[in-house]
Amino acid sequence: MATPRHTVSRRAALVAREVNDMARITASVYTSHVPAIGAALDSGKCGEPYWQPVFKGYEPSQAWIRANTPDVIFLVYNDHATAFSLDLIPTFAIGCAAEFQPADEGWGPRPVPVVKGHPELAAHIAQSVIQDDFDLTIVNKMDVDHGLTVPLSLLFGQPAAWPCPVIPFAVNVVQYPVPSGRRCFNLGRAIRKAVAAFDQPLKVQIWGTGGMSHQLQGPRAGLINREFDQAFLDQLIADPAALAQKPHIDYVREAGSEGIELVMWLIARGAMGDESGPGTPRVAHRFYHVPASNTAVGHLILENT
Amino acid sequence: MATPRHTVSRRAALVAREVNDMARITASVYTSHVPAIGAALDSGKCGEPYWQPVFKGYEPSQAWIRANTPDVIFLVYNDHATAFSLDLIPTFAIGCAAEFQPADEGWGPRPVPVVKGHPELAAHIAQSVIQDDFDLTIVNKMDVDHGLTVPLSLLFGQPAAWPCPVIPFAVNVVQYPVPSGRRCFNLGRAIRKAVAAFDQPLKVQIWGTGGMSHQLQGPRAGLINREFDQAFLDQLIADPAALAQKPHIDYVREAGSEGIELVMWLIARGAMGDESGPGTPRVAHRFYHVPASNTAVGHLILENT
Amino acid sequence: MALDKPYKDIPGTTIFDADQSRLGYHLNQFCMSLMKAGNRARFKADERAYLDEWAMTEEQKQAVLARDLNWCIRLGGNIYFLAKIGATDGKSFQQMAGSMTGMSEEEYRNMMVAGGRSVEGNRVIGEDGDAQAHRQPQGRAGRKGSQ
Amino acid sequence: MALDKPYKDIPGTTIFDADQSRLGYHLNQFCMSLMKAGNRARFKADERAYLDEWAMTEEQKQAVLARDLNWCIRLGGNIYFLAKIGATDGKSFQQMAGSMTGMSEEEYRNMMVAGGRSVEGNRVIGEDGDAQAHRQPQGRAGRKGSQ
Ligand SMILES: [Fe+3]
Ligand SMILES: [Fe+3]
Predict the structure, then answer these.
(1) DSSP-assigned letters across all residues of A227-246
(2) Ligand 1 centre from B90 Cα, in Å?
(3) Which of chain D's ends, N or C, has fewer CB atoms near its CB within 10 Å?
(4) Is the minimum CB–CB distance between B198 and chain D shorter than 8 Å?
């Protein structure tokens, strides 16, 4: 059956409008979330020689995000025995509440703004990825710890209010077994698909936090592995699907027991979806510095082109 | 290289011993978990004409389980807004604690024994299935509601203590999206594999509870669908992999909004593992009765042969 | 396009999805609080005062005070949460479920003993089963109107 | 055969798995309680009395009183939980981590500023890196013994 030409054009216009009316992932941000960085900021120590190189590394990021403020941030992090005790440990938990309070981790709550959520998009993503066989835990009440607030401080500084809503996504990397890199990468893909099916024209960034190499326990505390970290950054950019095959034991052995947090970066990377269309994302910024407290600070910004 | 004959025999003996030293799933039990059944038992009403046919249907089961008491029961059920409020909703939660208290659901706690867990096997199964890409929530503190205790009462009556430990496994079927039948069936397969890798010679039963057809809400409350229920039982026995493809909407439309609980039976059925070796399990008992309160009572016992 | 909700075409049935859950969050959490004997006693002593401790809408409070479960469900309530109100009132699940049909307790119980409500005519909105909107309320309450 | 634990061969490193978690359940839950300012004050006022409120083993209590984090970890503690004790004492994560090496605060800090501990010799038990058992404690504390 022949289709009149004007109908085809109208359909194309409709499709084009539909794509523009939908949410999309515009960029991903990767960063360590060291608690001492939060403490340095909150106590006004960022000018000290020890901290200067760290904060200098985030200056381009602060400029970048002023120019590229998203409508929502989907922030992947891990809870550090804060909201989740041993009574209940979700592998993946998505925060669907309207707001989340900064937690008291023992030093008193960080003096940072309350985190506003995006309940509608969060619920939509939850619905979509659960139907894609990811067995999320839905959370409507949760305090958020340094894992979530330190990255916000690094990118946004010290505003009176965070400039956009944030969907907290907590991953268990504290009690083994933690999810595999492959599982995380595939979850990122499912999140991308979910975002693309949300019918509001939102620019969504996905952040992966934690790492890089560090170990906070035992006689091996203080381990740092620059070669591992740099290779991780290289492969995260160029060949994340292969990186996702790395077994847990490699992270622990090479990057320290807390280096396992790096699997969370694969969730953000999986959501960039360059396999399914656009080429390798553009590296907007890359930074690496040792040390911040016990940790190697790594940071990367990838833009979808 | 030739292998001396005695070595081969020794190896075969070793393998045989190993298989016998491992845990295994011996049978699966399926049953509705109607709260009114618990209330009838607890208040001594089981002799009433209304309840007699229900409890009569479980008499063969009580005899069967006296002859086939397992070392552990892995009990799949759903929490009915008891342990989990809207603050936190795990899709799949595995109880790893040493004990679980019967919950106060609003009528006061049921006068039944405390439920003793099996922390070692529970943690082993959690570890194995999380590594198989099921994103469980690990729970170390949880009260258990009628969804778990009514099936125990139906099979064991009113003992001073439950005759064996129980691992509670809670599935979200309250807030959509709930896991698909296919996801549940595959989870059952992963649980079977995990049990078979536990190096203690435990006989493990897996119970799937909830259902059958019922609807507790709205002008359509009281819906019962015998044809659906009987076909479900037939297919659960003979072709569970095909049954696992049934979409949620079919359960809701045909078996009532709370009929969706039947997806939990597919977890138990998936753990029977007859695809991978032994033939179709033996039907040790099958029972169906309408009504108990608002619900069609269905019950099935399958033995691995 | 947002995600499908293929479950919107079933008569007399509300699926408790994330949207309903957000709508009914405070209502349902109020219900959860009734799992403690002390809270049940306080609620019974002064229902209005107890409800006013919760961030519920006025309409949600009215629906609870009226014990109108269909109304509660329209406002985001879920039956497993709402059941805590019934439990506080000493009601069974059968009494609660029946109350949403318009039938008397006896009528509903008799329907169940006779095999329950048939699915025929009740699968899709627009058929003619007894759960369809144009046939509410059911039982004697419904017949009164039409006689 | 039970599940593999391929992470048992790394020197100076305890992986917090389900077995450790069961072992340390009450120890770690005690630590969580220190996230409330009121509990921190009560603990500081009388450590022993506060510890006695928890179903911890006597050895776990001793390890906490001694602030010996390696000992706590052997008894099922996890660093993110144990950090609540350090926070209560006003210690940073760097001070806590360093305390497990035997180094002084300054020695540990200098090691980190110089690029951190090398992975060489510390990948597998039996190599000769500074995290291996035969080289504990580290820093001045270790050199004292060998001089
Ligand atoms: Fe962290
Ligand atoms: Fe149920």
Answers:
(1) HHHHHHHHHHHH-HHHHTT-
(2) 23
(3) C
(4) yes
